[in-house]
Write a structure and sequence with these properties.
alpha+beta, 3 helices, 7 strands
Length: 146
Amino acid sequence: MKREYKNSRYAGEMLVAAELARLGFEVMLGNIGKHHTEHFDLAAACPVTGVISGISVKSLKAPNVFLIDPERVLAPAVYVFIITGGTGALPQFFVVRGKQLLADERRFWGKWGRTYKQASRRGIGHKDLAEFKDNWAALDTAKRTS
């Protein structure tokens, strides 16, 4: 029986958690089943530096526009945009801090940005994130927790 792949959101969160763990971070899952955190999907802690980053994951199965409203972006958060791909395909990760997204809103959201009437349709094209591919160093720019 062939399974239909529908839930790129959940797959994206699990792929990001796995990649962070592979890179040596301690990962805390925020959204499990029907329980959801308010602002973040995950948290990642560097055991060496003590830096903890709140992470919001935005995922797609195939290249397209990531729906994200600039009014809901948090400057200190790390945003991981992931194209999960289909079965057998490697995921693509684009990692950027909210502060960078907000500093160049026009570039990421275009000339309409916050004024686009349908907030639920505001988004960032995957090509606009190319320079942030595998930019896991963005997690190291947070402040120490102690």
